[in-house]
Specification:
The protein has about 300 residues and is of the alpha/beta class. The protein has helices at about 1-10, 40-50, 80-85, 95-105, 130-145, 165-170, 175-180, 190-205, 230-245, 280-285, 295-300; strands at about 25-30, 55, 85-90, 90, 110-115, 150-155, 180-190, 210-215, 250-255. The chain has a single domain (about 20-65, about 80-295), classed as Alpha-Beta Barrel (TIM Barrel), CATH 3.20.20.80. Strand 4 (about 90), helix 4 (about 95-105) and strand 5 (about 110-115) form a beta-alpha-beta unit. Bound molecules: 2-acetamido-2-deoxy-beta-D-glucopyranose (2 copies). One 2-acetamido-2-deoxy-beta-D-glucopyranose binds near residues 273, 275, 294, 295 and 296.
């Protein structure tokens, strides 16, 4: 039986369960990425067929309230209950904390809530820097509020192993240390040894399970990634099973699920029409997901078929 099962895996047979831990593969939708006419329904259908389960995007409020998510500019985004259910909300910065208190007291509590997005890095000036002492003061009442159905994620730092930020934050807010069960981190590191080393270092420091809420080899320029699409696909195929095998990383969120515009090291998982590309095929394949049939990769890509 076991031998037969191994042979099936070797032959590339995919299962509905996948080979990584359940819910391991997830993605990111960026507010700044162009939303093509296909967004979100065909893209989400494609992504989920490759085992993507949840997504992060940069808001606490539901998507329909955010016009940045609609292909037609300046209109409210379309409502999609399945998509909305898969969204992990973020308390972006101290300006969201009061609304998060209201959310926790409502009858619509989210199963997970990330507490601050990159307080240590102001991306394009769009998000404010928050120092760890101010963050501790701001988040203390929120983490202390009853939250029987919600698991908290730590602030997701751009530099998660910074020797000062998280240690000062937890020192100033012991209730944060006890109430936050998951350490969130962002990592864009094309060097696989460095990536695994930094993920392990963060876990060794806090001893809590980890979600990599932004992941990929490319972060918009600074990571030094020079891969072509085949290189990005190879990176995904190699590193994703390694991270899964670490055991303490519960979920990774590949950035990004959209059709991003980038000349080099393009991390997009989908094409503008919502179809899968070679990177998504590699990412899903790394966890034993084969996608739905009928992909046009053979004609679209480099003449590669779908079988491996
Ligand atoms: C973490 O990544 C940096 C490069 O960004 C690297 O210099 C360092 O050695 C890595 N740390 C570990 C423990 O691998
Ligand atoms: C594949 O190509 C056919 C014909 O060009 C098109 O109708 C179909 O929508 C494409 N499917 C995908 C998944 O791209």
């Amino acid at each position: 039986m076991l031998l037969a099962a191994l042979l099936l895996v070797a032959a590339g047979t995919t299962s509905a369960q996948g080979t990584c831990k359940p819910g391991f593969l997830n993605t990111v939708f960026n507010t700044g990425t162009p939303k093509h006419a296909s967004w979100p329904d065909p893209i989400w259908s494609t992504l989920t067929s490759y085992g993507i389960q949840n997504f992060i995007t940069f808001s606490l409020a539901p998507l329909p309230q955010n016009p940045l998510f609609d292909p037609a500019p300046n209109t409210p985004a379309r409502s999609n209950p399945t998509l909305e259910k898969a969204r992990i909300p973020i308390v972006m910065d101290p300006r969201d904390t009061a609304a998060a208190q209201t959310l926790l007291a409502s009858n619509n509590t989210p199963p997970y809530l990330e507490l601050f997005n990159e307080p240590d890095y102001s991306y394009g000036g769009a998000t404010p820097l928050t120092d760890p002492v101010a963050a501790a003061q701001n988040l203390s009442p929120l983490v202390s509020a009853p939250h029987p159905h919600t698991t908290f994620l730590s602030p997701a730092l751009a530099n998660p192993n910074d020797p000062n930020w998280l240690p000062t934050f937890f020192d100033q807010c012991p209730e944060c240390l006890s109430q936050i069960d998951i350490i969130a981190m962002h990592i864009y590191e094309p060097n696989i040894d460095y990536a695994i080393g930094n993920i392990t270092e963060l876990h060794d420091r806090w001893g809590k399970r980890i979600w990599i809420t932004e992941f990929g080899p490319y972060n918009g320029g600074g990571s030094g990634c020079t891969f072509d699409q085949a290189g990005v696909a190879e990176y995904a195929k190699t590193i994703v099973p390694m991270i899964d095998r670490l055991g303490f990383v519960e979920k990774i969120f590949w950035n990004c699920g959209d059709a991003e515009v980038a000349d080099v090291c393009n991390p997009s998982l989908t094409e503008e029409d919502g179809s899968a590309n070679a990177v998504l095929e590699a990412l899903g394949g790394a966890c034993g997901f084969g996608g739905k049939g009928g992909s046009n990769l053979t004609v679209r890509g480099r003449g590669r078929g779908r079988g491996r």
